[in-house]
Please model this.
Amino acid sequence: MPRFFSLIVLIAAWAVTATLVHSRLLPGPLAVGATTLAELRSGELPFQMACTLARVIGSFAIAMILGSMAGYAMGRSKSVDRFADSWLVVLINMPALVVIIFAYIWIGLNETAAILAVAITKLPNVIVVVREGARALDPEIDEMTRAFQFTGFKRIRHVVIPQLAPYLAASSRSGLSIVWKIVLVVELLGRPNGVGFVLGSAFSLFDMAKILSYAICFIVLMLLIEGFVVQPLERRANRWRRRLA
Amino acid sequence: MQTAGGDALLELRIDAKSYRSADGTPVEVVRGLSLRLEAGSFGALIGPSGCGKTTILKIAAGLDADFRGERRAPGPGRLGVVFQEPRLLAWRTVEQNIRLALPADRIDVDLADLVEILGLGAHLTRYPGELSLGLARRAAIARAFAVDPDFLLLDEPFVSLDETTADRLRDELLALTTRTRATTLFVTHDLLEAVQLADRLFFLCDRPTRIVLEKELPPRRIRSKDMVASLGNEIRALATQAMAGAHDN
Model:
């Protein structure tokens, strides 16, 4: 309830400011709502959002899978960690924009380059978090799995992933928000569709209502994914904790 | 590799075992220990706390290869281990914990008997965090027996349980080892417990440890409670003497 109330206050403040300023550069909620409806009806908004969402999912999945594997390897082996740590430092400090430009120049102005560029930007963050998780794996449980000769698959599925779950959840939380922001930049710089592309062309036309309407719609979409996908998954993974005496 | 003796399930010779402590100084844990366990017999390692019993058990289990000496465990013997702490997967139910340890060829095995003997029937669907220590220990014992081990290792599995529970679990352990004929190595610091359970006792001295006294016991089925007590007293005197002389020379 307080959350709902604070949202109402925010929209009201926006409406009041827009009325007072009365400028084309700050359209009120009603104008933005009308634009959104029109864009929805024409099918433009769903199409552009779908393009962006597909890129978000693609690069998020690549970053999570590669990052988890690399982070696990670095957390488990000191020599791998020592070898790869300097690469990681380079990767962490590489500006997203540089990665995007390199990807577009080397791979070309295409989908592969766009998705890879975003995945690489997100990658070091996943590696760092999962590495911590892999370092914290219980050595006593490890010994138990060796004594009972757990197969590799059984160990990963029933021993490693449940222990890494909080770390995976943390990095996918922060990951989703980083990824979608960078996807917009990638689209702005070199894609003919997607929310980022629309924002870019709206910017050149000073079409503030369109910019606000696309931005808000995408934020809402991300909140829905967080609430209806990420959080339920997290609850499921933590089932056993809530029953603790 | 089968040895000339033929029926030894485990032969262990540890010339030296040491580890590096947190501040980097090497600590010698075992020196000049040799141990032989016949197939189907029940051996107990007895020694003061911190003498390296757990270290020896890990080497016997093949979980620690970093020692000077030789471990010979003939055949592809299946291993069951009960650690000092239950070491259950907190995120899996009791039944899943037991089943996950099973080798591929026993995956559908019927656990009903085992579960009943250990009194776990009502707890199979619970998570380890919801169990008392006694129940968690039983689950760990069930896991070790469920694999139908040829070679069973137990590391003070009844420590910090109340005496009644520990006693009942000891009886259950005896029943299970008798029934399955598993070769068993049991670590404890409790002499009476060892006398009650084992066929052969190995006494260890302080670090660096070795076996200072080895004692074979009369067959288990003719051991009454009184006999356990008097045997215990007799062996205690011998062991004290052996321990006292252990580091003299």
In short: The interface with chain A takes residues 58, 61, 63, 79-81, 83, 85, 87, 89-92, 96, 100-101, 103-104, 126-127, 129-130, 143, 147 of chain B (CB under 8 Å). The domain at 39-62+76-246 of chain B is CATH 3.40.50.300 (Rossmann fold). Residues 242 and 248 of chain B are 10 Å apart (CA to CA). The mean pLDDT of chain B is 84.
